[in-house]
Amino acid sequence: MTEKQSTARTAGGADTWSRIHAERAALAADLAELTDQQFATSSLCTGLTVREVLAHLTASASLNPWQWLAGVIRCGFDFDKQVSMRLNEQLGATAGETLERFRGIVMSRTKPPLPTMAMLGETLVHGEDIRRPLDIRRAYPIETITQVARYYQGSDQVVLAKGRIRGLLLVANDGPFSTGSGPLVSGTTLALTMAMTGRATYCDELEGDGVATLHDRCAP
User: Residue 197 and residue 158: Cα distance in Å, rounded?
Assistant: First the structure.
C-alpha cells in the first residue's frame, strides 16, 4: 500500500467514525424526552423493545474484539445468546439509565471485529428500528445513507442484504444509489436500505415490479 493509499484509507475511516458519532448523537437527542411507556414500545427488531435495541447499540460500542471473543466462548459459540447477554449487561435498572449508558458511548470508537462501515450501518438501521414505531422521523444526510446502502449491497455479514436483493434492480429516487439488475425496486435510499436489511415495513414505501419479491424475502 502506498503512502497516498494509506492516507486515503485513514481519512475514510475517520469520516465513517464521524458519521457514526453524528448518528448516535442525533438518536440520543431524539430519545431525550421519551416516557417509560415509549421506551417499552416494540421496536422493528422482533421481540425487542425500543429500550432493548438501545442497550444493544451500547453493547456493540462497548466491546473490543477480545471481549467479543470471550463472550462468544462463554456462550458456547451461540451468537444470539451472546447478543442477549451483552444487551442485558447494558440495560440498566431504568429506561433513564439505559439512555445515559448510550450517551456514554456516543463518541466511542470501540467495536467488535467488524468493519467500521458495519458499525455505521448498525447505528443507522437500529436507529430506524427505534424511531419508526415512535413516529420519529430523521432527515439523514444523503451521503451517510448512501454509504450505508452501498455497504449493504455487497455484504451479507451480520445481516443478510446482498443475498436478499439478488436479481433485483434497486434505484433511489432521492440520491445517487442504484445497484443490480432485474425487476425494478424504487424509492428513497432509506426505504431501500431498510428493506434490503429485512424490514418489510419499508416495502410499503417502494415501487416497481420487484417490490413483492423483496417483501417476500424480508420474511423471517
Answer: 10
The whole-angstrom separation of Cα 219 and Cα 132 is 18
How many whole angstroms separate alpha carbon 22 and alpha carbon 143? Answer: 13
Most confident of the ranges 58-62, 99-103, 113-117: 99-103
Q: Among all chains, which residue has been given the C-alpha cell 430519545?
A: 31
Sheet holding 184-187, edge to edge: 178-180, 169-172, 184-187
| pLDDT digits 0-9 by tens, 170-181 | 999 999 999 999
Give every CB contact of residue 149 below 8 A, 6+ residues apart in sequence. Answer: 172, 177, 179, 189, 192, 193, 196
How far, in Å, are 53, 67, 85, 113, 119 from residue 59 at the CA level? 10, 11, 9, 13, 12
The identity of residue 141, as a single letter, is: P
Q: What is the pTM of this model?
A: 0.89
Q: Is the Cβ–Cβ distance between 123 and 57 less than 8 Å?
A: yes
CA atoms within 13 A on the CB side of 116: 17
In CATH, the number for domain 3-134 is 1.20.120
**Least confident piece of the model among 7-11, 104-108, 149-153:** 7-11
Give the CATH number of domain 152-217; options: 3.30.1050, 1.20.120, 3.40.50, 3.30.70: 3.30.1050
Q: Spell out where the chain has E strands.
A: 169-172, 178-180, 184-187
CA 119/CA 123 separation, integer angstroms? 6
